[in-house]
Amino acid sequence: MKRTPIIATLVLLFSLFSGFAQAEGEAVNINTADVATLASLNGIGDSKAQAIVSYRESHGPFASAEDLALVKGIGARTVEKNAERLTVK
C-alpha cells in the first residue's frame, strides 16, 4: 500500500489553504491603494472602490481607517469587517 499519493494530496491541500490565508491578511493602505486592490476588500466592489479613490482625490488622504465610512455607500459595518486589513500609513 503506497502512501505517497495521500501525502502529496495532503501537502497540496495544506499549501493551498495557507496561501489563501496569507492573501486574506494582506494590509491595504487606503491612501495609496488602486481600485483593484480596494475592490479586494470584503464588501467593496469596483464601484465602491472607485468611490474611495474619488473621495480621496477630492478630500485628501484619510486620517484613520474609520474615515472610510465617510465615503458614500460605505458604512461602519464594512469598515469593521475589514478593520484588520486597513491601514493609512
Structural key phrases:
mainly alpha, DNA polymerase, domain 1, 51% helix, two-stranded parallel ribbon, 89 residues, 4 helices, single chain, elongated
Overview of this structure, please?
The chain is mostly helical and 89 residues long. It has a domain of 61 residues: AF1531-like domain (DNA polymerase, domain 1, Orthogonal Bundle). The protein has four helices and two strands. The chain has a two-stranded parallel sheet.
**CATH level 3 topology of the domain at 27-87:** DNA polymerase, domain 1
| Total strands | 2
Largest sheet: 2 strands, parallel
Spans with pLDDT under 50 lasting ≥5 residues? none
Q: Helices and strands in order, then pairings?
A:
Elements (H helix, E strand, L loop, with lengths): L3 H21 L3 E2 L5 H4 L7 H14 L16 H6 L4 E2 L2
